[in-house]
Specification:
Chain lengths: 517, 514
């Protein structure tokens, strides 16, 4: 880099601040692990993470209204980090959702020492492992979470494929680790981590191949440049097709779309429940944020080329997720398949392109709150120290713990899309946008899928209220203020966005235009 | 004339009542009962005020007592309320039947270990949602309550119902209705997209009718299937016998007496004015379905062995008559159909409540468990016979007027159909009389003597709560004119979309509560 360029390089530090704060806090968390005595680490780590994420959120708010790139040379924009409406909205959403997720990670009262293993390297089910079950869980999870969240925040503002790849790895690697850190049923947890890691590594490889193909086609990895090349590139169009296909495979893997969904039920079930909540809410936001940007900014000009295949995937995802959810007997698997079906609805928003960006983001925020609260409740219902995830164990919960049962009922009705919940407003606005984009067929499939999916949700409600409890029914462990806040925040957001969606609709409406579209 | 936001209050009072009652502790069951009854009574008073202030003249604006408050501006979703003659009758029916149903279920929960406050809170929530659907003049607002209503009804059937199949019945009811509702949702959104973002009913009615015939047909079907499931019309009826059979009798009275009317009400309010051409296209098919429903359901009713299921099937037959009345498109038949909706609520409501009296005494609603019961329960048997005769439209009872008007109207132009439908009257006589005979008359079932409750005739509470229904059925049987006067302007306005030109509609500006 010569001197002239260096002099001309302008960096929008304020625009980068949210990511910088989170990453610095993550490194700070590592230092805390090394310096602070074990007894006090939890408090320090949780405070650090929450403060950092809150500060990042505040920084996002201060960036509000920005519409440009973070780096410029001599006034010419470099598109590696793009600060625009959707990017900032999704960063803010990620910050809020991850604060909630961190609180859930910090829960230690429902089961002694929390859900995380103290020493992950100890062989599972060995004598040493049994001994460490009484110990408090490791606190590395907080810096790991911060790294992942920082990666997600970077992913949704990345304006070229290379930055996006770095962000993708940044968000994935800590998550692979986190999945394997469960204290109970460790083998399942480790299996989940391995499965997620191997498939995720394949997905990353696909991403890199796809990026190379697109570079060959467009001569640039910049999304706006690829879009331009879709119109005027002289290269064979086959490069574009292969590139888009491979890129889509990688991103749809993260988004858990059929047929790249196989890992979802196993990983969601095996991972510690707080990590599952983080994945279901935040990773979904990041993955769809990336998909929205890639398809709106980078591939809008070649929409004809990918429209059909993405439509097929969306239909398969909506129907597959819903149909498989019907037969599930484990609440975590049920929520996993429901999250697959929801990925299908969100894909409608991606396919509808510009018209639906705001509505897709609304859906992501609404769904994130609901699903985090749902997994938080799952972590409260316990057989002794283990979570009672088998649905049959939930029978008659309404008798013993009416409060918890009411919460679950509200969440299930929201997921089923009943009016006066965020589930309805989100689906309504998304389907409206899709119809405006002439995607009637997808909307009808979405509606059919919602109707199928209502059955498993209703089955949970039936179990809670209409069945008699078993004599050795699981108990609902009283949460500390941590998990209590998570549940409360999720339920309040679910109802608030259902009854008063106006303010958020206005925000997403203003924030729905990508730079360079 | 009336500055009070009466219609908002009609939705808010039961809703607030539901929240208050739900927060009462389980042990204070009586406090919950009386609070709930108080709220329902207040709703009845408010409804009566609306009826008194209503302008019954032919050139009055279509919707009266209109109110509108912005809710979600981006979707044109407003809290817009308004009432026409048809909605007024439905409102009165809801507001009248709900406290009666509460009284009917007053002590029914003593035997089962279920929360009494929750039961009454659910009934109030259901009342709020039902009233809101009748009063809403914004399509999305209507949809909100149309769907939300499923939740309290689902719990009322599934949690408080009777019989081994109550869960199955509740889930079937919920999913069936939800499926219909979701198809309607697609149509609602498509309508919104097509007309440029308008959900306000009055605006849509005043604007040019939809030009695209194919689109109109699809939208009509989206709306109609949801309403046909709700009503229910043959062949969308299979959930009703299960739900009606499993629900507690008082809830079944509300389910069949009021909630199902939302389907037929919404056809009049939405399908005809919004999609007039499509309505005409599909009318012959719907009339055919209605007539099949009349005859088929009557035959099935004759074969029932359970009293509640039997009454549910009679209602499906009656809904066939209502469908016939609406889609024959004559003033007499449509007026008759609306009166039918009201009178059927009274008669079937009474019949369900009396069946409930019997079932709670005997501990069973199976016909075979009765026989000669009139010997020890003369008054109850008398009311039972009266309710049965009213539901078969005996002259002198209110349902006779409506059935007569429907058939009279249908004869002009649809003679063969009307002739077949008339068969339904004969079959109705068969199932009612035979039901009465098998339960009340004939050889006494010796098992009845072992049930002490079967010797206890109607209590004062039970007499007090059936009295208004009996009086209303007789009163409107002899003096139906007030009802006819109330609904005729609204029916005429609706039919203008079929026969005449909608320009003849009364102006919407002259709102009464100014």
């Amino acid at each position: 880099m010569n001197e002239a360029q260096q002099a001309g390089l302008q960096i929008d530090w304020a625009g980068l601040a949210p990511m910088i704060i989170v990453f610095v806090a993550a490194f700070g968390g590592l230092l805390v692990e090394a310096t602070v005595p074990k007894g006090r680490r939890l408090v320090v780590q949780v405070s650090l993470a929450v403060i950092a994420l809150a500060a990042a959120f505040a920084a996002v708010i201060l960036n509000q209204g920005k519409n440009g790139t973070a780096f410029e040379i001599e006034g010419a924009a470099i598109g590696s980090v793009v600060l625009d409406g959707p990017g900032l909205f999704l960063q803010g959403t990620l910050a809020v959702l991850s604060i909630i997720a961190v609180l859930l990670l910090a829960e230690r009262r429902t089961t002694r020492g929390g859900d995380f293993v103290a020493e992950a390297a100890v062989v599972a089910d060995s004598a040493a492992d049994k001994a460490q079950r009484r110990e408090d869980g490791a606190t590395e999870i907080f810096p790991l979470t911060l790294f992942a969240v920082g990666g997600m925040m970077m992913f949704v503002v990345a304006g070229d494929l290379l930055t996006m790849f770095v962000a993708l790895e940044m968000l994935s690697l800590p998550l692979y680790l986190l999945c394997g850190l469960a204290k109970r049923r460790r083998l399942i947890s480790q299996e989940a981590a391995l499965k997620y890691f191997l498939l995720g590594a394949f997905a990353s490889a696909f991403y890199v191949y796809g990026m190379a193909m697109l570079f060959g086609f467009a001569g640039t990895v910049d999304l706006a440049g690829i879009n331009q090349a879709g119109v005027d590139s002289g290269q064979p169009r086959m490069f574009l097709y292969i590139g888009v296909a491979m890129l889509a495979v990688a991103m749809l893997f993260k988004a858990a779309a059929v047929p790249f969904h196989m890992w979802t039920p196993d990983v969601y079930t095996g991972a510690p429940t707080p990590v599952t909540a983080l994945m279901a809410a935040c990773v979904k936001v990041a993955a769809f944020g990336g998909l929205l940007r890639v398809f709106n900014v980078g591939l809008a000009s070649s929409a004809w080329d990918w429209h059909l295949i993405l439509t097929v995937i969306a239909v398969a995802t909506m129907l597959g997720g819903a149909i498989f959810a019907v037969t599930q007997r484990n609440i975590k698997r049920l929520l996993a398949y429901s999250s697959i079906a929801n990925a299908g609805y969100l894909l409608i928003g991606v396919i509808a392109l510009g018209e639906a960006v705001g509505q897709t983001m609304f859906y992501l925020a609404a769904y994130g709150f609901t699903v985090i609260a749902a997994f938080a409740v799952v972590s409260l219902v316990r057989d002794g120290d283990e979570e009672a995830t088998h649905l049959a164990r939930w029978a008659g919960l309404g008798k013993q713990s009416p409060g918890t049962a009411v919460v679950v009922t509200i969440l299930m009705l929201a997921l089923a899309g009943l009016p006066f919940t965020s589930g309805f407003t989100a689906k309504f606005s998304l389907f409206t946008a899709a119809l405006q984009a002439d995607e009637l067929g997808l909307v009808i499939v979405g509606v059919v899928s919602s109707a199928i999916l209502a059955f498993p949700y209703l089955k949970v409600v039936v179990l809670l209220w209409l069945n008699e409890p078993a004599p050795d029914a699981p108990t609902v462990n009283l949460p500390s203020p941590m998990a209590g806040t998570v549940v409360a925040a999720g339920v309040v957001a679910t109802i608030l966005l259902g009854v008063m969606p106006g303010f958020l609709l206005d925000i997403v409406d203003q924030a729905s235009t990508f730079l360079n579209t | 004339m009336n500055a009070l936001p009466l219609l908002s209050a009609l939705v808010a009072v039961p809703l607030i009542g539901a929240v208050v009652v739900a927060s009462i502790r389980r042990e204070n069951a009586d406090a919950a009962r009386w609070t709930a009854l108080g709220a329902a009574g207040l709703v009845a008073v408010l409804a009566a005020l609306v009826a008194l202030g209503f302008d019954y003249s032919a050139d009055a604006p279509w919707l009266q007592f209109t109110e509108s408050y912005t809710w979600v501006e981006a979707w044109d979703l407003n809290l817009s309320w308004g009432v026409d003659g048809i909605a007024l009758l439905m409102l009165l029916l809801t507001a009248g039947l709900t406290p009666i149903a509460m009284l009917a279920a007053w002590r029914d929960l003593d035997a089962v270990k279920r929360s009494v406050p929750a039961f009454f809170a659910l009934i109030l929530a259901l009342e709020a949602a039902m009233i809101a659907t009748f009063l809403a003049s914004n399509i999305l607002l209507f949809y909100f309550f149309f769907e939300a209503m499923l939740v309290p009804m689902y719990f009322l059937i599934g949690s408080y119902g009777t019989g081994p199949k109550k869960q199955y019945a509740a889930v079937k009811f919920f999913l069936y209705s939800l499926l219909g509702g979701l198809f309607m949702l697609v149509a609602v959104i498509a309508l919104w997209v097509h007309n440029g973002g308008v959900f306000d009913w009055q605006t849509l009615v005043d604007s040019e009718p939809m030009a695209d015939g194919t689109l109109q047909n699809w939208l009509f079907l989206g709306f109609f299937i949801a309403f046909a499931i709700k009503a229910p019309f043959f062949p969308f009826h299979t959930w009703l016998p299960d739900a009606g059979g499993a629900a507690p009798a008082a809830v079944a009275a509300l389910l069949v007496g009021v909630m199902d009317k939302i389907g037929t009400f919404a056809i009049l309010r939405y399908c005809i004015p919004l999609f007039p051409e499509a309505t005409q296209t599909f009318a012959p098919w719907i009339i055919g379905m209605s007539v099949i429903g009349v005859v088929y359901a009557a035959f099935v009713a004759i074969g029932q062995t359970d009293l509640k299921r039997l009454v549910a099937y009679t209602s499906i037959a009656h809904f066939g008559f209502i469908g016939l009345g609406i889609f024959a498109f004559t003033q007499a038949s449509a007026t008759g159909a609306v009166l039918y909706m009201f009178n059927h609520g009274l008669a079937t409501g009474l019949l369900f409540i009396v069946v409930g009296f019997l079932a709670i005494r005997r501990g069973s609603a199976q016909i075979a468990d009765y026989g000669g019961a009139a010997k020890t329960l003369p008054v109850l048997a008398g009311i039972f016979l009266f309710a049965g005769l009213a539901s078969l439209s005996l002259p002198g009872t209110a349902p006779f007027i409506s059935e007569f008007l429907v058939l009279f109207g249908a004869f002009t132009g649809n003679e063969p159909v009307a002739v077949v439908a008339t068969l339904g009257i004969i079959l109705a006589a068969a199932y009612v009389i035979w039901m009465y005979q098998r339960t009340m008359q004939g050889e006494r079932n010796p098992a009845l003597d072992e049930v002490p409750a079967m010797k206890r005739d109607l209590t004062l509470r039970e007499k007090a709560l059936v009295a208004p229904l009996v009086i209303a059925i007789l009163g409107f049987g002899f003096f139906p004119q007030p009802l006819i006067d109330a609904v005729e302007p609204a029916v005429d306005n609706t039919l203008l979309f079929i026969s005449g030109s909608p320009e003849d509609l009364p102006a919407a500006e002259g709102v009464t509560n100014e």
